[in-house]
Amino acid sequence: MKQVIVVGNGMVGYKFCERLRKQIGEEEVQVKVFGEELTPAYDRVHLSDYFQGKSKEDLQLASRDWYAAQGIQLETGVMVTRIERDKKQVVTHDGKIHAYDVLVLATGSMAFVPPIPGVDKKGVFVYRTLEDLDAIQSYASKCKSAAVIGGGLLGLEAAKAVKDMGLKTHVVEMAPRLLPRQLDERGAGMLQITLEEMGLEFHLSQQTASFVGGEQLTGLQFANGEQLLTDMVVISAGIKPRDELARTCGLSVGPRGGVIVDDHMRTEDPNIYAIGEVALHKGMIYGLVAPGYDMADCVVKQLAGEEVKAFTGADMSTKLKLVGTDVGSFGDALLESSKGRSIVIEDRYQKIYKRVNISEDGKKLLGGILVGDASAYNMLHQMMMNGMKLPPHPEDLIIESKGGEQAVGGGVEDLPDAAQVCSCENVTKGDICTAVKEQGIESMEQLKSCTQAGTGCGGCLPMVKDLMVHTHKQMGKEVKQVLCEHFAYSRQELFSLVKVKGIKTYPELLKEYGKGHGCEICKPAVASILASAWNDLIVKQPTIQDTNDRFLANIQKGGSYSVVPRVPGGEITPDKLIVLGQVAKKYDLYLKITGGQRIDMFGAHVGDLPDIWEQLINAGFESGHAYGKSLRTVKSCVGSTWCRYGLHDSVSFAIEVENRYKGLRAPHKLKGGVSGCIRECAEARGKDFGIIATEKGWNLYVSGNGGSKPQHAQLLAADITSEECIRYLDRFLMFYIKTAEPLNRTSTWLAKLEGGLEYLKSVVVEDVLGIGEELEKEMSQLIEVYQCEWKAVVENPELRAKFRHFANSDEKDPMVQFEPMREQKKPVNW
Amino acid sequence: MTYDTYNIPKNEKVTSWVFAGNATDFTEEGGECVLIEGEQIAIFNFSSRGEWYASQNICPHKQQAALSRGMIGSEKGEPKVACPFHKKTFSLCTGKNLNGEEAAIKVYPVKVEEGKVYIGWH
């Protein structure tokens, strides 16, 4: 058995472990990994997401359990201090000795800190590890401004991060332009304008001579005599390979650092490999992950005894989103290494810059730059990588055709099979198409788990999906929207079956029209269909509900639940408000006012829910259905009763509408709003339905959305009466409920609806299908049978008994734990 | 308590069976959590298959004690449970994570005799 030791547990070190275990099991190769940082390898590429609220665990590439399950011995917080090549062993900082047969150096790099006087002052940071980020975040809370030294990829990333912390942000770059390695002057200029508008300030062609201040930094002194006052500095001026270990054991390193390796990642010592940012290959250090992964692959293949292609260097093309604008740079972007001619478009209104470099003979794409709109990146990159033939008018590559069609001439069908579509996992077009054809793949999930494509950075997913759809088309295969492996029907079909056959339970439907034993996809989808069809109490079928519906409350971090009583239109009496306070106090609940104008009470033990609700119901409250894919709130502004601008009484109408549709279950949650005038204080156009008062009546807007893809609701009918508004709403909601796919909000549903808004209008307003009356009737049947779900539970001892953590003990879940925060409580972090 | 503390007997070597509750205490086609010697164990009454399963109650993904509140079902015939937090699914037979790279959960043998449910404990 071979003993492999990996020094370094960064992204490349981790990838090495992952690839190794895919090929070689524990019985052949033992693996020990030493990581200097305290946490297992995390995603450094998305480091700034940490500031956006991602936790350390979210960024982790694999948990400790994964290493354990793979039989990999991971030791974090352990530093290898010496390699004894003659004895084939390493020594760690605690004096322990570990023998190896093969040693893999994946020590990566550290931030390059230029030797500037004053660099040791408080307030000078680098941007490299999670610890750096913690330090920056805690120091920034005392600061008003920050300067980032370095206008490269990582520097701009760091600049965005400090700007998001609310600091005035400066970027200092030695070169006369941003991203000097990726962009030309005009592209960089365009990027700069965009970033300046977002509030970043740039200091180009500036060399920092010293850091000014006493113990704490107060500013920068530039070489040209100018000064910049700032409270903190983040240095992001490049990387320096961590080659100390290699140096001290006598391996050759480059003049500017990096362990010299051959085309097979071998150092001078045949038992030692170097991969990732510590490896110097043909004078190059590759500061991107994809080449590092290729190197890891190369070593794994050698250990597995497979034939290995020589590593001949890597494509340094990049596409990224910088502070909200797209930037892409591929191939010979600056026309430095080959002869060619460029086609450039520069649109200073939309702030878009595109450049493609074409070979002298006009036949090949050599490289290019995209700023502001990088949607063509994947296709252009593929054309360049595969030497594909250019269209007759190469300018079409970057000029949008009049119809707004995608500019690039060729679609995915023109790509050669060898085209590498996913560079993280090295998956080609051929791999993807073959998998789709030969393994009968029908979904992206299947395709991802089968080929690994798109499981890395995810940038190639749109192209992977296009390839799947294209292959299906080629095969003449119509891929039907089916619920899951248990039901070969779409949601719309199942809805009709349930209605027509009068099916009331999940087991009935599964027996008649499904197979197997169900799953977490079809159970809640069918539960939703049954509820939308019959509006029966969902607690009667508890085990097909998502946990929120099963316990009629929203599960929160730590396993406690939150309670949201209905407050129609956001109108509440003092007496009711006092009851909420009293209940919260009694059960020690955290209170927060929601975006939907009601009050959310967090931190309830599952066993306390019935008691809490009993008291709320006694005070006149009803379930708010915050846990369901159902109507949430109808938000309102104060309206004409109080507001001097109000045209109609928006509060009364909101309450009427909310009470009409309360308890209505749908493919996804539903939110509404009513505004008393065009000032739109209820933000009704951000809702699934929005009603806005006009001089003559109401305007009804539909299919708006906040959330991850904000979208304004669109006008369905103008200047209508309250009665008309309700009628159209009945039809619109019922039509959506009957035809949408599971978990599609109204905005997504409308986007997919053939014919779009015009078709929707013709169905709802003009009733071209002649189903208007039927839709209204179905809605009124649902409204008629409404009952408060919580009232039903509170009054039924058998149902109440279902709300408990342990079946055999009255004890509360001891893992539900809280800690204080701002005079209330919060769950302890997970 | 972390899930690492769960010990697990191999089915054939079970020497002690611990009483977990009456079969009627367990919701059909779903899970319940029981406390056994200080450990949280999820027991699943997979009535449509006429089978019972038990596992640790804690999901390895975010260490939340909630697998008993998850939905059960099958994937290509294999019985599974989905954690209610992020829908990580685990085989009820082997404990293997079926839709990701989480560590496997520990599963326990279950037997039902005269309407009483027992977990194989040692």
From TrEMBL, chain A:
<keyword id="KW-0408">Iron</keyword>
<dbReference type="InterPro" id="IPR012744">
    <property type="entry name" value="Nitri_red_NirB"/>
</dbReference>
<dbReference type="Pfam" id="PF03460">
    <property type="entry name" value="NIR_SIR_ferr"/>
</dbReference>
<keyword id="KW-0411">Iron-sulfur</keyword>
<keyword id="KW-0534">Nitrate assimilation</keyword>
<feature type="domain" description="FAD/NAD(P)-binding">
    <location>
        <begin position="2"/>
        <end position="282"/>
    </location>
</feature>
<feature type="domain" description="Nitrite/sulphite reductase 4Fe-4S">
    <location>
        <begin position="628"/>
        <end position="766"/>
    </location>
</feature>
<dbReference type="InterPro" id="IPR007419">
    <property type="entry name" value="BFD-like_2Fe2S-bd_dom"/>
</dbReference>
<dbReference type="InterPro" id="IPR045854">
    <property type="entry name" value="NO2/SO3_Rdtase_4Fe4S_sf"/>
</dbReference>
<dbReference type="InterPro" id="IPR036188">
    <property type="entry name" value="FAD/NAD-bd_sf"/>
</dbReference>
<keyword id="KW-0001">2Fe-2S</keyword>
<dbReference type="Pfam" id="PF01077">
    <property type="entry name" value="NIR_SIR"/>
</dbReference>
<comment type="pathway">
    <text>Nitrogen metabolism; nitrate reduction (assimilation).</text>
</comment>
<dbReference type="InterPro" id="IPR036136">
    <property type="entry name" value="Nit/Sulf_reduc_fer-like_dom_sf"/>
</dbReference>
<dbReference type="InterPro" id="IPR017121">
    <property type="entry name" value="Nitrite_Rdtase_lsu"/>
</dbReference>
<feature type="domain" description="Nitrite/Sulfite reductase ferredoxin-like">
    <location>
        <begin position="556"/>
        <end position="617"/>
    </location>
</feature>
<dbReference type="Pfam" id="PF04324">
    <property type="entry name" value="Fer2_BFD"/>
</dbReference>
<keyword id="KW-0479">Metal-binding</keyword>
<dbReference type="InterPro" id="IPR041854">
    <property type="entry name" value="BFD-like_2Fe2S-bd_dom_sf"/>
</dbReference>
<keyword id="KW-0274">FAD</keyword>
<dbReference type="InterPro" id="IPR006067">
    <property type="entry name" value="NO2/SO3_Rdtase_4Fe4S_dom"/>
</dbReference>
<feature type="domain" description="NADH-rubredoxin oxidoreductase C-terminal">
    <location>
        <begin position="317"/>
        <end position="386"/>
    </location>
</feature>
UniProtKB/TrEMBL annotation, chain B:
<keyword id="KW-0001">2Fe-2S</keyword>
<dbReference type="Pfam" id="PF13806">
    <property type="entry name" value="Rieske_2"/>
</dbReference>
<keyword id="KW-0411">Iron-sulfur</keyword>
<keyword id="KW-0479">Metal-binding</keyword>
<dbReference type="InterPro" id="IPR017941">
    <property type="entry name" value="Rieske_2Fe-2S"/>
</dbReference>
<keyword id="KW-0408">Iron</keyword>
<keyword id="KW-0560">Oxidoreductase</keyword>
<keyword id="KW-0349">Heme</keyword>
<protein>
    <submittedName>
        <fullName>Nitrite reductase small subunit NirD</fullName>
    </submittedName>
</protein>
<dbReference type="InterPro" id="IPR012748">
    <property type="entry name" value="Rieske-like_NirD"/>
</dbReference>
<dbReference type="InterPro" id="IPR036922">
    <property type="entry name" value="Rieske_2Fe-2S_sf"/>
</dbReference>
<dbReference type="InterPro" id="IPR052034">
    <property type="entry name" value="NasD-like"/>
</dbReference>
<feature type="domain" description="Rieske">
    <location>
        <begin position="18"/>
        <end position="119"/>
    </location>
</feature>
<keyword id="KW-0534">Nitrate assimilation</keyword>
